[in-house]
Amino acid sequence: FSRSDSSLLSMERTPVHAYTISALLLALLALLFHTLLQLGNSWHRYYVNCQRLRCFPEPPRRNWLLGHLGMVGNTEEGMQFVDELVGRYGHSCLWWFGPWLPILRLFHPEAVKPVLLESAAIAPKDYTFYGFLKPWLGDGLLLSNGAKWVRHRRMLTPAFHFDILKPYVKIFNQSTDIMHAKWLRLVASGSTSLDMFEQVSLMTLDSLQKCVFSYNSNCQETSSDYIAAILELSSLVVRRQHRLLLHWDFLYHLTPDGWRFQRACNTVHRFTADVVQRRHQALNRLGREAWLKSKQGKTVDFIDILLLAKDEDGQDLSEEDIAAEADTFMFEGHDTTASGLSWVLYNLACHPEYQKRCHGFSNCSMPFSTMCIKESLRLHPPVTAVSRRCTEDIKLPDGRVLPKGNICLISIYGTHHNPAVWPEPQVSLVTLFNPLNSKNKPPLAFMPFSAGPRNCIGQNFAMAEMKVVLALTLLRFTVRLDESRPVRRKPELILRSENGLWLHLEPLGPSCESRLPAPRS
């Protein structure tokens, strides 16, 4: 090419480069404008939301950056701080997690009722507090939302009918007998003080495995990989909640805790999938009628009920759905029931006069023990709070509005200890649950199993097991406080006690048990 040709090509390329650079600059400007517009909209929504929330009282913050973060810990002092909040504000208050995340704490029946009784579509659960359970529990009833939750709830409700639960009483008795036999051996060897949480948790896991899978792991006497995995998953989820940096999945999966969590999930999922697949294959091989005949005279377990469940269109649950519901029931059923039982034994140890009435022949009636259980659930609810994030504005009876999109933390513990509802809320008074005395209480003054469409579907199962285990325990043992081990409450996934809940056990004579009626659910 000549020099003139090269100059011509250079002149032709120059406009192309200019157009390209101009286009890139325009794209960058458009992106910047879009980002600024989004930030402006977000700031406007944040400002409007803050203005709407001003009608709710707000305790003093730590500072502008942290808000109230860290002011209520998972400790005894944190529980006492909640008591102070409830006593000071009575109804509700506004809480800030950092400068951007407002949370409405509700602790009065009038405040919690409009949220809990709203439909599941308008008041779904908030995943800020439940999301860490997703890899373990999948889309079971605890974590699912929308149409899937509605479908599964309808299909599973018959599984918790009283008639279905009656055969489980025999299993509750068997698992309790195993626990009591172990207690007698430990007491005989000199170990009179035992950690109730450790003992009762193994018993509830044992009974649940039998009720859900018809499987006996003998976990109260020997180690079980499946049971160990469930216990490890529960502790890992709690530990992750307390470490903000590990809230991001990609960071958590790189840590030793994340590796242990994945291994434990695999152990649980393998066990559940194996049981479901084998049971499904047997159903398909025999056919529905023959399979049902093979179950006659046997206890129908939770997996059987799920395999037979059909929706309005005649569709079954998938194996994945059945496994998720079974894992959810194992998680929710063992921890909450163990917490409820451990605390009722503790409260009876604190109040020998109530325990004496349960031991006495004429007064050892199920109605009185049920009153003891309910008062213990009021004082020490296994689940201290539940959360919702409403998709629509919710109007309260006093005219204030809970703006949509905000997290509502419904404090079950706070409602149960609200002096505006329960005079002297820290004082144990079993007669509060005498039917004659409870008539004037608001319906949601007592809600240990939550309330509304998303209440605990297994509450009848839990209450039946607690009644049976408590009755058998008080027929065979007297429980006393271990004064050397002070009790400090610790709210985690369920309400526990720091360093365990230790009680002294004193076996009763066999004559006491023989002259008492057998416990009924």
UniProtKB/TrEMBL annotation:
Pfam families with a match to the protein in the record: p450
For molecular function, the Gene Ontology terms on record are:
heme binding; iron ion binding; monooxygenase activity; oxidoreductase activity, acting on paired donors, with incorporation or reduction of molecular oxygen
Q: Keywords of this protein's UniProt record, alphabetized?
A: Endoplasmic reticulum, Heme, Iron, Membrane, Metal-binding, Monooxygenase, Oxidoreductase, Transmembrane, Transmembrane helix
Cofactors (names): heme
Is Heme included in the keywords of this UniProt record? yes
GO cellular component terms attached to this protein's record: endoplasmic reticulum membrane
Query: Where in or outside the cell is it found?
Result: Endoplasmic reticulum membrane
InterPro entries named among the record's database cross-references: Cyt_P450, Cyt_P450_CS, Cyt_P450_E_grp-II, Cyt_P450_sf, Cytochrome_P450_Monoox
> Which Gene3D superfamilies does the protein's record reference?
Cytochrome P450 (1.10.630.10)
Name assigned to this protein = Cytochrome P450 family 4 subfamily F member 22
What is the source species?
Chelonoidis abingdonii
